[in-house]
Amino acid sequence: MNRFKEILKALGPGMVITASFIGPGTVTTMTRAGAGFGYSILWAVLFSVIATIVLQEMIIRLALVTRRGLGEAIYDLFNHTVGKFLVVWISMLAVAIGCAAYMSGDLLGTSLGLGYLLNIPTNILAPIVGIIILTIGLLGSYKIIEKIMLGLMVIMGATFITTMFLVKPNWGEVFSGAFLPSIPDSSIIMVIALIGTTVVPYNFFLHATAVHERFNGMKDLNLARWDTIISIAIGGLISGAILISAGALIYGQEVDNVVALAGPLVPILGETWAPVFISIGLFAAGFSSALASPMGAAATVSSFFKWEGGMKGKKFKMVFGTVILIGVVTSAIGFEPLEVILIAQALNGIILPVIAILIYIIINKKGLMGQYKNGPVLNVIGFAVVAVVSFLGIYSMIDAVTAFFG
Q1: Based on CB atoms within 10 Å of each CB, which residue in 259, 270, 290, 337 is the most buried?
Q2: Which distant-in-sequence residues (6+ apart) come within 8 Å of 206 by Cβ?
Q3: DSSP 227-251
Q4: Whole-model pTM?
C-alpha cells in the first residue's frame, strides 16, 4: 500500500507529456477516426501508446543516468562539425517552427470549448488564453505547471472516459478493433495521423527536462518508469475513449471537432449539459497542449545549446515567451499559416525518424549508459517501434511536401 502511494505521489513528468499530446489536434483526429471508421482502427491508438512508452522510457533512463538532456546527448554524439551542425540546427528549427506554427491552432482549439461556455468569439478568447499561459510560464514554477497539467488530465479523463461509458458501445467490437489490427479502405492516412498525434518529437526533449526538475538520480528510476507507464496509458485511454464515443454516436458522419459529440449526448445528459460537458473536455485538452507546446520548444533549444537553469532559466523563458506571443498574435488576427504549418509538418516528418534513430543509438552506447543501456528484449521492441515511427515520419513528410506544391 505504501508503494502504491509512493507511485501516485511520483506522477508528474509523465502527466506533463500526456497532457501535451492530448491537444485539440488529437481530440479532433480521434473524433474523425471514430466517425469515419468506427472502432476498426482503435489498434493504432494502442500501438501509439506502446510506442510512446518505449521511447519515453529510454528518455528517462538517459536523463537520470547522464543528468543531461537529449539535445546535449545528440550534440556530443557527432564528432564531425558538418554533421553536428546539420542535425542540431535541423532538429531545433523543426521543433521551434512546428511549435510556433501550431500555437495558433492550440489557442483557438482551447477557445472553442471556452467560447461555447462564455458565448465569446474564439479570436477574442484565444489571445487572452495565450496571455494567461504566458503568465503561468514566466512567473510559475515547474511544480505549479505540473499541478495544472495533472488537474487538466483529471478533467479530460472525467469528461471523455465518462462519455465513453455513457454511450454504451459494443464492447465486443471495441476489443476487436483494439487487438485485431485491420486497415479499412482509405484509412491509412488516418492510421498515420492517430499514431503521429501521440508520438511527438518535442516531448522527447520536454520529458528529459521535466525528469530533471522532479527526480533525483538513479534511485528514482523505477518511480520515473511507473510515472511514464501510468501517465501515458491514461492518455491512451482518454484518446481511445474519444474515438470509441465517436464510433458509437456519430459513425458515418462528417465532423470537424469533438463538439459534434454533444448532439447525440442530449438524450443522456440533457440539452443544456451535453454541450457544456464536451466543451469543458475540449478546453482542458487545448489548454494543456497550448501550455506544453512552448515548453517543448524551449526545452529543445535549451538542451541543444546546453543552457543552464532548467525551466527557471531566463533563456528558457525567452523561447517560451516568443512561441506563445506568436500564437497570441496569429490567433488574434485569425491568421491561418497554412504554408508554415505544411513546412513544419514536413520538417517534423524529417526529424521524427532522425530523433527516434538517434535515441536508439544513444541508449545503446555502453560508454554513456553503462548497465542501463538497452538489453536484447528492449532492443527488439525499440527497433520495431523506431522502424514504424520512421516510416510514419517519412510518409508524413511526403504528404506535406505534396500538399505544399499541390
Answers
A1: 290
A2: 16, 17, 20, 292, 295, 296, 299, 300
A3: HHHHHHHHHHHHHHHHHHHHHHHST
A4: 0.88
